[in-house]
Design brief:
heterodimer, A: mainly alpha, Serum Albumin, Chain A, Domain 1, about 70% helix, about 0% strand, B: mainly alpha, two-stranded antiparallel sheet, two-stranded antiparallel ribbon, about 5% strand, Transcription and mRNA export factor ENY2 (chain A), nucleus (chain A), transport (chain A)
């Protein structure tokens, strides 16, 4: 019964005014941003993240990262640890310790997607 | 992959660059997830148990090695048996504590025979009980030690009596003839 109202409402509603309307130019999306949107909308980004997460658990990377955090927390004191501390701790080591095979697998998947979506 | 054969070198280079970028994105996102989880664990102190468990596992692995070592025979070593933690146990338990029935100090390894006499199961104890004036004691002393115990205990720990009221425990030892033969 309400379907009509809903449908009419969504069609007839005026577009949300853009904050950039006063600017002369519209913001151009970079190619990268366009690809990002396609990745997200297709669900591929989520699938890729899950795949990467799974591989990183399998190879022990996640356990290594957790051990690093534990050691850091012991030294600095449990209550003095901030999230930022841990992110700064893990980012260089995390990026450096991803196994080559895992990285290669993910890169391959991404490039396949790019090839199929970029056309 | 075969899709890429149709791309120009420029496009292929772009593809490499972009895929690296997106890979980094995914990795950073996962790093934040792990950091966030570890932050929570650290602040809530949830890894305290983990440290204890890890220590336990280390100890038990060591102990297992010691047991597997053939130079550590168990029964062949006479009265000392080595357990998996490398501890020796004497054949008679030597810890001393208070008997909760009569209040005497007893050795753990000699507690069972003590209790037999203390609670009225043994021959000497039963003889003494029949000399007592209270009829209830006679009835109870023939039953299980558990039933003899409950009517007369007025505290959960020691039953040392200060006044002269009759009881199974108090009366028996006034003559002092209780020690192990």
């Amino acid at each position: 019964m309400y379907d009509d109202i809903y449908r009419r409402g969504s069609i007839n509603r005026p577009p949300t005014p853009d904050a950039e309307d006063d600017q002369i130019q519209e913001k151009q999306l970079t190619f990268q941003e366009i690809i990002d949107i396609k990745l997200i909308e297709s669900g591929e980004k989520e699938r890729l993240k899950e795949l990467l997460r799974e591989r990183l658990i399998e190879c022990g990377w996640r356990d290594e990262m957790k051990a690093l955090c534990r050691a850091f927390a012991q030294k600095k004191g449990r209550d003095n640890v901030t999230l930022d501390d841990l992110v700064q701790l893990l980012t260089p080591k995390g990026r450096a310790s991803v196994p080559d095979s895992v990285k290669a697998e993910l890169l391959q998947r991404i490039r396949s997607f790019l090839a199929s979506a970029a056309i | 992959m075969s899709n890429e054969d149709n791309l120009s070198p420029h496009a292929q280079g772009l593809s490499l660059q972009l895929s690296s970028h997106f890979f980094g994105d995914l990795l950073d996102s996962i790093i934040v997830d792990v950091a966030s989880e570890c932050h929570r664990i650290a602040r809530l102190g949830l890894d305290r148990n983990l440290e204890e468990e890890e220590e336990e596992m280390r100890l038990s692995a060591q102990a297992r090695l010691r047991v597997a070592d053939p130079s550590n025979s168990s029964e062949a070593n006479g009265k000392y048996i080595v357990d998996i933690f490398g501890q020796n146990h004497p054949s008679v338990a030597s810890e001393i504590f208070e008997c909760m029935n009569c209040g005497r100090s007893v050795m753990a390894g000699k507690f069972a025979p003590h209790l037999e006499k203390c609670m009225g199961k043994g021959r000497k104890a039963r003889l003494k009980v029949t000399r007592s004036s209270t009829a209830a004691q006679n009835r109870n002393s023939r039953g299980s030690p558990a039933s003899a115990y409950s009517p007369y205990s007025n505290s959960t720990s020691s039953n040392r009596l200060s006044n002269g009221t009759s009881s199974v425990a108090g009366e028996e030892y006034s003559n002092g003839a209780f020690e192990d033969p």
